[in-house]
Design a protein that fits this description.
Blueprint lengths: L16 E5 L18 E4 L7 H11 L15 E5 L9 E2 L8 H5 L6 H11 E2 L7 H9 L4 E2 H14 L4 E8 L34 E2 L1 H18 L3 E6 L2 H12 L9 H6 L32 E4 L6 H4 L10 E7 H4 L7 H7 L5 E4 L7 H18 L3 H17 L13
Parallel strand pairs: 1-2, 2-3, 3-7, 4-6, 7-9, 9-10, 10-11, 11-12
Antiparallel strand pairs: 5-8
Helix pairs in contact: 5-6, 6-7
InterPro entries: Metal_Hydrolase, Metallo-hydrolase/TatD-type, TatD-like
GO molecular function: hydrolase activity, acting on ester bonds
Protein name: Metallo-dependent hydrolase
Amino acid sequence: MAENTQEEPFPWHLGVFDAHCHPTDTMSSISTIPKMKARVLTVMATRGQDQQLVSSVAEDHYIKSPNPADWKPEERIIPCWGWHPWFSHQMYVADEDNSFQTQEKEGKNLQGEDKIRHYHAVLRSNRATLSDEDRRHFLSFPDPMPLSRYLAQTRTYLERYPLALVGEIGLDSASRIPVAPDADADADADAAVTPGGRDGRRLTPFRTHKAHQKKVFKLQLQLAAEMGRAVSIHGVQLQGTVFEVLRELYAGHERKFLSRRERKKRGIDEHGNDEPIVPVPQTSHPHAQPQPRPYPPRICLHSYSGTPADFNMYLNRAIPMEIFVSFSAAVHLGGKQPGFEDMVRFVPDDMVLVESDLHTAGPEMDDLLEVIVRRVCRVKGWGLEDGVRRLGRNWKRFVFGEEREGMGTGRSE
């Protein structure tokens, strides 16, 4: 799928890193990972059916060191655990506003009328009242599980894999809930595809309320913050709300900069180094912060669908998190995402990542990565080898938290 066979040979030997992909959606493709040209895949979990699958792939292919010199040939993935907003309705959060605290304490899934009450509370449709058809849909959906149980399981995975990340998590106002598998004869017909996904299913009129998505999103971000892990974030038609949730977490922890008057008082050259008074720690080890901060250290806005105007809010140098944006051929090329080149130009060079966002490992994933790397390099005006090296450094900093190499704050002035 390379754009032009007459182009400069692609420098796979320099290391190409997929910042976001889903090969556990097609487990039969996992055996191709050691043969791939891409060096490392950042593998996302999204729902109940793939959490353990990501762990099973990590057992054989997990990268155990942030130092590439220590990587063994079979070490090819960074595992990530998260619950995607498309499936957030399958979780319940027990709090003072509902009656599910006893069920949560006992770790129970909701059934019967409790299940109907949960789905009626967290799902919205174009119907004003709950119909018999709605009740049938709700009873056919998965029995909702307590979010607290999922978070405990995810904590265990993150403790087992100290370099693992949190993802894919986020917010999405566009997606509708599909029918249950047994309600659609064609669903999950392909035995090679991990069940529970959305592809090929008929859609119900239901969407998950933004308030419920925010609860599930925020609690996962707080777990990432506690564990000191980077996060891969999905955001569709709710860019402002994604930022709002992040800002709620870092409020009161903004980077502080000296005023011009204070710089003059301290005898600092006006054009000198403009670093925060108390820089946010950057570490190559995810557990090195003795007192976890209430926000994740690094986030990636994966296959970002916003505009430069939307993204501009992330360029405030006071934000204590490191911000990255990843681009994919699957989302940004082929006319699916207008304004792609404008967005690539707008994002600072040291915030750019690439991804495949593909559901299967192997040659197709390599091809998609090559296409997006070539396009990003062309738009940025980077030579191909220079661009691959830049993207590799950015990925390592996103995943491992490495220091920039003389690249300043990374924020646009």
